[in-house]
Amino acid sequence: MPFSVLIVDDSPVMRGFIRRVIHFTGIAVENYLEASDGRQALSLLRKQPVDLVLTDINMPGMNGEELLRQMKFEGFLEKIPTLVVSTDATEQRIEKMLQLGARGYVTKPFSPEILRERLEAVLKMDAVLKMDAPEETNHAQ
Length: 141
Prior knowledge:
Helix content is 48%, strand content 18%. It is built from six helices and five strands; from the N terminus they run βαβαβααβαβα. Residues 135-141 have low confidence and may be disordered.
């Protein structure tokens, strides 16, 4: 099933690299969106639903931690699976990002194989969570 991905990173080169790696994984992405910081990402997310967000942490303007915090605050955005891709590999930072709702973490620099593994893990986790979620019913009369 094709889906859409938002890549959030202040480096256009890194956004392009991530996009190419996703393409080579064979994951059927129908639509790629890109943002250079968290503020731009939130603006896009409010207008266009996506199935997956990949975000850096260290960006000017709104960083990735603030982005995850705001996504958590705006309940409907919290459900979007998010993978953090960052140079910041401290245990404290990784734990903080996972507490804020990230479903996985990739440390830069990374190999395409590592990103593929993490993407697959996040997507499988999301599929399991959707299967376990109770069905929403419409009670409107």
